[in-house]
Amino acid sequence: MFRLNAPPLVDPLRSKGLTLIELMVVVAMLGVLSALAAPSFADMLRRMRMESMREELQASIANARVEAISRGQPVVLLRTAPCPQAANALDWDCGWTAFIDLNGNDTINAGEPILHVVQGKPGTRVGRNPGAALATIDRFGQPPIANFSIFPAGEAFSPADGVALCVARSGRIRNCPP
Q1: pTM for this predicted structure
Q2: What is the DSSP pairing of strand 75-79 with strand 95-100?
Q3: What is the pLDDT of residue 27?
């Protein structure tokens, strides 16, 4: 019988790992892939912050309506002030507080129950149209007619880049064009 004693193609003692060149190629490929993914990741984070603020505002208004009807007292959503990051004096960028307004003066006084406090999200702007520092839901659960715009902060962004909530007098809250 004929037998070949050919040497192995790869020396088993030398094939234990990666060369420096192979490692540098892999690192370069990972760098290119992460550079391609970074802008879309930043956009996704911006959209998630805006959606989170929209959902919190929508839940605050709905909760305030329920509390106003069940307690028979007006509920006020009052923007957090002072707000150093707000571009406008009436922006709601720093958040808001919902409370039962027992004496009808639209300010938080001792003994008035605070329902919840919402903190603003960094990099997100919230505005109310018409501009006002508060939104009062009457004892029948009717909110003021208002639009809220939520959009990214920064000079490169405008309300057209964000989302908007339209609040009808009936209490219906819907998404509307920014």
Answers
A1: 0.75
A2: antiparallel
A3: 93
Going from the C-alpha of 103 to that of each of 59, 68, 87, 98, the distances in angstroms are 24, 14, 31, 15
Question: Locate tokens 């106003």: which residue?
Answer: 68
Dihedral Cα 4, 8, 13, 15, nearest 10 deg? -170
What's phi and psi for 75, nearest 5 deg? -115, 135
User: Which of 128, 178, 122, 123 shows the shortest CA–CA distance to 154?
Assistant: 123
Class of domain 20-176: alpha beta
Q: CA dihedral in degrees (81, 85, 89, 90; nearest 10)?
A: -70
Spatial contact of 55 and 80, defined as CB atoms under 8 Å apart: no
Q: What is the mean pLDDT of residues 90-100?
A: 90
Residue 71: count other Cβ atoms within 10 Å of its Cβ. 14
Q: What are the boundaries of each domain within the chain? A: 20-176
Concatenated DSSP letters of 93-107: TTEEEEEE-SSSSSS
User: In what order do the strands lie in the sheet containing 163-167?
Assistant: 124-129, 146-152, 163-167, 173-176
CA-CA distance, 144 to 137, in Å (whole number)?
Answer: 7
CA angle 119–139–144, rounded 5-degree value: 60
